[in-house]
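lol ok so funny story. i was supposed to be doing the assay writeup but got distracted and ended up predicting the structure for this chain instead. priorities right. anyway since i did it might as well share w the group, maybe its usefull for someone
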Amino acid sequence: MTNNSTITVDEGNIKVERMFDAPRELVWKAWTDPKHFMQWWGPQGFTSPLAEMDLRVGGKYHIGMTSPDGRNMYNMGVYSEITPPERLVFTQCMSDEHGNAVSPASFGMTDMPDETEVIVTLEDVDGKTKLTVQQIGFPKGQMTDMAAGGWAQSLEKLATTLG
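and the output, tada:
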């Protein structure tokens, strides 16, 4: 799988940029429609069997992904800004299968924060879409590098689903 994303990792911030040969409205739908979201969410080899989205400011989402070895992992968060089709801001934390927040430390991930903020920006560039994903609140280290790589792999899957 090729990687066409530009990744920047600074203290407390992951930034991934990627150009998609698809209109902004379609990329927005891939982020906000559970049926579309489940087609691409997660790193290479992972599937997404769950995406529940209450797409409104203050609304919650609950998403799941399954690793190639069958292990289920879940995230949840709250939307704080929704500006279709250009900007989506939400918190992200690990959760159990019911959508209750859990500390990453309970899974042995001691260098991962309990909660981060994700900012998704979609910019129309001559009929294509420049996507920027920022995840704020990660300390620099192995988990940050893994998260950045996971974003890049997920966005590669998104490019494939967009055609």
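The longest strand covers residues 72-83. The beta strands are 6-10, 13-20, 47-53, 60-66, 72-83, 87-95, 116-125, 128-136.
back to the writeup now i swear
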